[in-house]
Known about the structure:
The chain has two domains: 139 residues, FAD/NAD(P)-binding domain (3-Layer(bba) Sandwich); 137 residues, D-Amino Acid Oxidase, subunit A, domain 2 (D-Amino Acid Oxidase, Chain A, domain 2). 29% of the residues lie in helices and 25% in strands. It is built from eight helices and 17 strands. Strands 5-6-4-11-12-13-10-14 form an eight-stranded mixed sheet. β15 and β16 form a beta hairpin. α1 packs parallel to α8 and α3 crosses α8. The longest helix is centred in the C-terminal third of the chain and has 18 residues. The protein is globular, with a radius of gyration of 20 Å.
Amino acid sequence: MYQTTKRPDSPVSIIGAGIAGAWQALLFAQAGHSVTLHERSDAAMTDATSHWAGGMLAPYCEAEVAEPIISRLGLRSLDIWRRELPDTPFNGSLVVALPRERNDFERFARMTEGHQRLDAAGLAALEPSLEGRFREALFFPTEGHVEPRRVLPKLHERIRAAGGTIKFSSDVSAKDLDGIVIDCRGLVARDEAPELRGVKGEMILIETDEVQLARPVRLIHPRWPLYVIPREAGLFMLGATSIEAEDTGVSVRSALELLGAAYAVHPAFGEARIVEFGSGLRPAFPDNLPRIGVRGDRIAVNGLFRHGFLIAPALAELTLAYVERGQIDNEVMQCA
């Protein structure tokens, strides 16, 4: 077991102010470390992967396709979200399907836990806008969601309040920094981790006041799960594809499927106004699992794939436990 030789008060520099780096900075700052968070883009962070994320906090739903470690980290992260940002919406999430996807709906139910089955009346009581739309649904009551473009600035504010420093437009490398350095650069870190790849996630932002939803709705789809995620002021995010490509455009096929999913959830979405198309490249290792790599005082946190907002708090907690106590999580950490 590798024990860090740095004193607890050693300076900690974190590179990358997206969701992974922000949580690292917050927990380290709260623990009393001298923290500086470096971000190469400006404060708007429109080029960051986090800018295009769905913000789903759904560890039970993710168990349908993800490894158990994602659920473990996700469940722990829910506790941290509740502790640090108690206004985070935990209204649960819904899974629905069209009649032709009935078999896939039942498979989803078998592969997951933590849900309640709702009939049409139960669904209508929970989400009145969906009355008469589906015969049944799976309700995951303890799951939540955040709006990434609003919650990331909140995390940055919390970092400053805890005594941390954030430097935007600061394009640095680990060799430029003293003390403990935590690299959360995502795909940019391929200079150190060439096995990383980008997995494109596309989204469409639409606006309507004809539909009200209190929680994300996941529509079973033959190729990938499609989400309708409510945001503030009548906005809804439609996502999220997972495409093995590293361009940042939105394809016609994806746009049709995302818009078709929204229409299937509620026909009123057909009259909604399209506000924005976009996509982000999620950093992923070949096994699609996160990794905390340790080389002396250099720590790399990467490979969060499509689970960034779900697992970032728990990964930060593990990194802090390693730096302060030498504690190693063998499922996540690799030491050299």
